[in-house]
Model the fold of this input.
Amino acid sequence: MKSHPVLGSYLRLFHAFPTSQSFDVYLDEKKYAKDLLYEDFTVYKALTPGEHQLTICTHRTLDPVYERSVWISEHRIYTLVLAYLPDGSKMQGYLLNDPPKPIPEEHLLMRTANFSQHTSPITLHLEDIKPIFKKIPLRQTSPYLSFIPTTAPIELADLTSQESLLTLPEHTFKTTRYYTLYLIGDIENYPLKLIQTIDGNSFLHFEENKN
Done:
């Protein structure tokens, strides 16, 4: 019987950099994604563990607007977020781990991340539902919290001023899934937005080494 190689890890890209330009993405000098627009995710790409070179170019050009090397560990699921540095000076790529974590029976897991230019602390909650994300971390993810599947509006507020920032229509969350709620925008022409995504740990798995 033929043996199949164990896939090392997975990586996707999230374009959270507020611009009208779309990007072409290269990994190790091979095109990985083209015409990637603001608010879009790529598919997850299987990668071998080790160092990989990421290059971002404006669509249909070969002029890099951002380059970096990324270290990929074995059996990891990653999301790399393209966003401004908090001071708004330039583009930065933030490598996030989508970690496996047991989901309680008949529940889902959800976390938050702030890649917007609203840099003061933000709190988020589902209306009339607990738990509450008391403080959304800046340029990183919160821990996953456990919820019963539901459909509910989402409310965001500035933690310092208590001012309401967004009240969003009902969002649906289903059992046995991992979700991340990404905050993006909040600069001229790009209002504060929340992007709901299902993380790769919901559907990507690794074979165990049975040697």
About this structure: Residues 1-6 have pLDDT under 50 and may be disordered. The CA atoms of residues 3 and 70 lie 29 Å apart.
